[in-house]
Every structure is written in structure tokens, then in C-alpha cells.
């Protein structure tokens, strides 16, 4: 009984033409396969797999809302997955182990036929575990190498009536002031709500140094380290006349300078 | 030419030659080591002895020593100035080379875009051949104008850059269908303004790739240009998912900032803002100059 059931599939891609292409190639390569639904993003794909319970899900890797990899993680075990991608050089090598197949766009009819033959053999069995592969794929798509921490590169601030994204490379220093944090660039000043403590955690520690409980300074902008009349260590930065005090607990940072 | 005119010209030439010889002597004095000057002086004295009239030679030698003492300082200052000039020229060249390198980097065509577009054309060939042909034409126009052009010194104009982005957007409109609406508001008169290559395109690609494509319903992309305080302001605005403050991987914007710095020092900038209605608005401000037509 079970063997006679028509095999089913869903196809997910954010571009209609691409879904059309996969569907028509599948029709040529595997006429008995019934495409029971199409999705335009990862979330829709997951919902379709849950409602239609297809044997196979063709998932584009890059999709809005939820990408193909996240979608595959969500439907793990419920369907056999075939990934579809236009170009992901790093990611593709992750498939070489072979438990999960992939197709390149534009889909080559012979390659689709091969994928269909493999799928037919696997249909009787449980969909393979993909955890390791998905983890590897996410890692490769994130940058192809070791997982690097992403630091804050832009700061959102109100400048006049507008909300601007200021690149951290333009910022001379951050200073805590009452409820706000003052951001100083060569051209202007702005206030942001993010406290120094949070900024210190999110900024690249090689780009910004904390020199005081209330002050973060961009290392490359430091012009001079000296002492004021009271003997406190102070820092001046290029493009600003302000002297920034270095508290004793942070003064070791400048010893090697 | 009258004889008096001829004489005057001969005199002028004589004076120029004398002046040149004097300055050459002056320069020689300034750079010659004291030791060499002393040896030459002795030789000149001997010559004066042989000629039996040493006084003019002695005066010449004393004058030379005084000139050398005074001119040495001036000369070394000149030398420093010329070295500084050379350095500035070299830095200028390095900047131009760096800018060319950055521009070439920016002009790289995103493989994902290329293969997806080819796949779409492939599908349209079967289902809608005239549309496939139009899309391929757009792709050809895009590729042709995106190829880095280093050889000709022609300054790119806003009009050219706009055509390039238009070809790109035509392709994206076929692919994204109702998920992409495009509005272009660039006054005809600003199309001849000089505008750096591939910058508008980078903003447009960012708006699509990071703003609208990740949004399930897609959205609207707007290109506009105006003159603000004597500068040309070109903006690309989208109502997509919004700017990520951790967009450090986005080399595109960093590249634009570097290039603007290299080309215009402090007179050009990239401003990224968040419109009240959400999404992202990126504006490039450059000095307003009409690209000189090539004669």
C-alpha cells in the first residue's frame, strides 16, 4: 500500500521564476512526483511541510524571513531536504559527504534527474539527520571560516531632527553624560541612549579603549597622553580640544605607548 | 624683422644666457662641498698667478665663499621643499592608485546576482522568450557599464551611473516581481554632473540585498538627487528591514567612504540615516561639478 502512494514535494524559493523552473524540471525528470505546494520564504516552507507532509522539500538557501538552513532545521526528520542555490561556493563543499543533496541554479536537467534517482532510493527510509551538516552550513555561510564575533560598526544617533547611523571609524570618543552618552566625531556631536557599559561590551576592544568609567576613546584618534595641573593622566584626541581623564584603574593601557 | 628689433632680441638672449650661467654657478656653489671649493680656489689662485693679475680672482673667491655661506641654507630649504613636493606627488599618485584599486573592487559583480539572473533568463526562454530577450539585454547593459574602465580618463557622470543602476533594477524587477517598486527622481539637469563610478550601484545593491530581499513582502526603492549647499546629494532610500549596526562585513559602504576620502578629502561624505517610516536612506554628497565633455 505504502509503496504505491504518489511521492510528494514542496518547492521553496523567493523568486517565482525559480520555483517554476524547479517544478518544470522535476516534472520532466520524475513525472510521478506531485508538487503539492510552493513557498516564497522559509517560514511559509515550514508551514507547508507541516500541513502537507510532503516526502521532499526543495529549499532555496537564501530566502527572506527564515533562510533555507533554518527552515531545514525546523522541519528536520519530517521530509527529505534538497537545497537549491545559485552560488555558494563555500557552502557547497559541505554537501560532499552526501547525505543531503543540492541543486545549482539554473537547474541542469541531468543533474535534476540524478537528484531524483537518489531521492527515489531514499524515500523508503527516514530522512537522515542533518544537524552536523546544518551547523557546518551556517558556519560556512556566516563567513566561511572560524566564527568571528561581530562588533558594533555603526551607532544609531539623533543628529538634529534626523536619525543617523554613524560609522565607529568616525567617532573620536563616547562619554557618559547624565542619562545619555555623548558621541563626538570631528564634525558633530550627538546623544545616544546606549550606556557606556553596553558600548564597551559591543564595540571592538581593539578599536575602542575604555579609559574611564564614563569614557571610551577610539585608539587611532588618540593624539597625546599627558598630565593635567592636578597630575591626573589625560588624553587628547585629534579634532577635539577636550581633555579626557584617564582613571587610575585604566592608566596601565597607556604605559606601553 | 627690423635691425633694431634683431639687436634687442640678441641682447635679450645674451642676458638670459648670462643669468642662466650665473644661477648655474650659484647652484653649483650651494651644493659643492667646502673641500672641493677650497681646492678649486687654490687652482684659480694658481691660474691668477700665471696670468700675473690675481686681484679679480681673489675677489671672486672671497665672493664665492660668502655666497656659499649664505646660499647653502637657502638651497637646503629648497631641496627640502622639492623633496616635500615629490613626496606629495607620490602620495597623490598612491592615492589615485588606491582609489583605482578600490573602484575595481567595488565594480566586482556579485556571483549570486549573476547566476540567479542567468537562471531566470533560462526559465523565461522556455515560457516567455521576448521577456527573456529583454532581460538579457538589461544584463548585457549592466555588465558592460559595470566593467571597470581604467584606461580612459573620462569622468563618470551621474547619468551614466543611473543608467547602470536602472539596468540592474530592471533585472531585479523581473525577478522580484511585485516585491519591488522603483521610483527614480533625478532632475534632467543633474545627469551631466560628475559622480564617482559604482557608488550609486553599491547603494542600490545594498538596498535590495540587505533591505528589500530579506523582507517577505518586499518594498519600495527610491533614487533621488538634488543640490544641497553647492554639493550634489544622491540618495537611495528603501523601506526594507532596516540597517544592521553590526554591518561590518558590508565592505561596500566602507569602500565608498574610503574612496570619497581619497578623491575629495573633507568635501565629500556618505551619510546613512534611518527614515521615520523605517528602512534605510544612504546619501552620497560630492562637490557639484559638471563633467567636462570631451572635445
Low-confidence runs of chain A: none
Number of domain units of chain B:
2
Strand order of the largest sheet of chain A: 2-1-3-4-5
CATH topology of the largest domain in chain B: Heat Shock Protein 90
The order of strands across the largest sheet of chain B is: 1-2-3-5-4
User: Quick one: how many beta strands of chain A?
Assistant: 15
User: What would you give as the CATH superfamily of the largest domain in chain B?
Assistant: Histidine kinase-like ATPase, C-terminal domain
Succession of helices and strands of chain B: HHHHHHEHEEHEE
Termini separation of chain B comes to 37 Å
Shape of chain B: elongated
Number of domains of chain A: 2
Q: What percent of residues of chain A are in strands?
A: 25-35%
Within CATH, the superfamily of the largest domain in chain A carries the name Response regulator
The number of E-state strands of chain B comes to: 5
Provide structural commentary.
The complex is a heterodimer of chains A (257) and B (295). Chain A is α/β, with parallel strands linked by helices and 257 residues long. Chain A has seven helices and 15 strands. In chain A, the strands form four sheets. Chain A has a five-stranded parallel sheet, with helices on both faces. By secondary structure, chain B is an alpha+beta fold. Chain B has eight helices and five strands, in the order H-H-H-H-H-H-E-H-E-E-H-E-E. Chain B has a five-stranded mixed sheet with strand order 1-2-3-5-4. Chain B is elongated. The two termini of chain B are 37 Å apart. Chain A binds chain B through residues 14-18, 20-21, 24, 40-41, 43, 62, 64-65, 86-89, 104-107, 143, 150-156, 162-165, 167, 169, and chain B through 111-112, 114-116, 118-120, 122-124, 126-127, 174-177, 179, 213-216, 243-249, 253-254, 257, 271-274, 276, 280.
Amino acid at each position: 500500500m505504502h509503496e504505491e502512494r504518489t511521492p510528494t514535494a514542496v518547492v521553496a524559493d523567493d523568486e517565482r521564476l525559480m520555483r517554476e523552473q524547479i517544478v518544470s524540471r522535476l516534472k520532466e525528470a520524475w513525472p510521478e512526483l506531485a508538487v503539492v505546494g510552493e513557498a516564497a520564504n522559509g517560514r511559509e516552507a515550514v508551514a507547508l511541510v507541516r500541513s502537507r507532509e510532503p516526502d521532499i522539500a526543495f529549499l532555496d538557501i537564501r530566502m527572506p524571513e527564515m533562510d533555507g538552513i533554518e527552515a531545514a532545521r525546523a522541519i528536520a526528520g519530517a521530509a527529505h531536504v534538497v537545497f537549491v542555490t545559485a552560488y555558494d561556493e563555500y557552502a557547497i563543499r559541505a554537501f560532499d559527504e552526501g547525505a543531503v543533496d543540492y541543486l545549482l541554479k539554473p537547474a541542469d536537467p541531468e543533474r535534476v534527474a540524478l537528484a531524483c534517482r537518489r531521492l527515489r532510493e531514499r524515500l523508503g527510509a527516514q530522512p537522515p539527520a542533518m544537524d552536523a551538516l546544518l551547523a557546518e552550513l551556517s558556519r560556512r555561510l556566516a563567513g566561511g571560516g572560524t566564527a568571528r564575533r561581530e562588533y558594533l560598526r555603526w551607532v544609531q544617533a539623533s543628529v538634529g531632527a534626523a536619525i543617523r547611523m554613524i560609522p565607529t571609524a568616525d567617532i573620536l570618543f563616547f562619554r557618559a553624560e547624565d542619562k545619555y552618552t555623548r558621541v563626538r566625531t570631528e564634525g558633530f556631536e550627538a546623544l545616544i541612549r546606549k550606556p557606556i557599559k553596553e558600548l564597551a561590551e559591543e564595540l571592538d576592544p581593539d578599536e575602542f579603549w575604555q579609559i574611564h568609567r564614563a569614557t571610551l576613546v577610539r585608539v587611532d584618534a588618540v593624539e597625546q597622553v599627558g598630565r593635567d595641573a592636578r597630575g591626573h593622566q589625560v588624553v587628547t584626541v585629534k579634532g577635539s580640544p577636550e581633555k579626557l581623564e584617564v582613571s587610575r584603574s585604566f592608566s596601565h593601557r597607556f604605559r606601553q605607548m | 624683422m627690423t635691425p633694431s628689433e634683431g639687436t634687442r632680441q640678441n641682447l635679450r638672449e645674451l642676458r638670459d644666457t648670462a643669468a642662466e650661467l650665473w644661477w648655474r654657478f650659484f647652484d653649483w656653489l650651494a651644493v659643492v662641498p667646502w673641500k672641493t671649493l677650497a681646492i678649486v680656489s687654490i687652482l684659480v689662485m694658481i691660474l691668477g698667478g700665471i696670468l700675473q693679475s690675481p686681484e679679480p680672482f681673489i675677489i671672486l673667491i672671497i665672493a664665492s665663499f660668502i655666497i656659499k655661506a649664505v646660499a647653502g641654507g637657502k638651497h637646503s630649504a629648497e631641496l627640502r621643499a622639492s623633496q616635500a613636493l615629490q613626496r606629495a606627488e607620490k602620495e597623490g599618485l598612491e592615492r589615485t592608485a588606491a582609489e583605482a584599486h578600490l573602484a575595481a573592487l567595488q565594480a566586482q559583480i556579485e556571483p549570486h546576482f549573476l547566476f540567479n539572473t542567468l537562471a531566470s533568463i533560462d526559465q523565461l526562454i522556455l515560457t516567455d522568450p521576448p521577456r527573456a530577450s529583454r532581460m538579457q539585454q538589461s544584463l548585457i547593459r549592466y555588465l558592460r557599464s559595470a566593467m571597470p574602465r581604467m584606461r580612459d580618463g573620462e569622468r563618470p557622470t551621474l547619468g551614466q551611473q543611473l543608467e547602470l543602476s536602472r539596468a540592474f533594477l530592471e533585472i531585479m524587477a523581473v525577478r522580484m516581481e511585485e516585491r519591488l517598486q522603483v521610483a527614480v527622481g533625478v532632475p534632467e539637469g543633474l545627469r551631466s554632473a560628475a559622480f564617482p563610478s559604482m557608488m550609486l550601484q553599491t547603494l542600490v545593491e545594498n538596498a535590495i540585498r540587505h533591505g528589500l530581499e530579506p523582507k517577505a513582502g518586499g518594498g519600495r526603492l527610491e533614487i533621488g538627487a538634488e543640490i544641497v549647499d553647492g554639493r550634489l546629494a544622491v540618495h537611495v532610500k528603501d523601506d526594507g528591514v532596516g540597517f544592521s549596526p553590526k554591518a561590518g562585513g558590508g565592505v561596500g559602504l566602507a569602500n565608498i567612504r574610503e574612496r570619497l576620502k581619497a578623491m575629495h578629502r573633507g568635501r565629500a561624505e556618505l551619510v546613512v540615516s534611518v527614515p521615520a517610516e523605517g528602512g534605510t536612506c544612504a546619501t552620497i554628497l560630492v562637490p557639484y561639478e559638471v563633467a567636462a565633455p570631451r572635445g
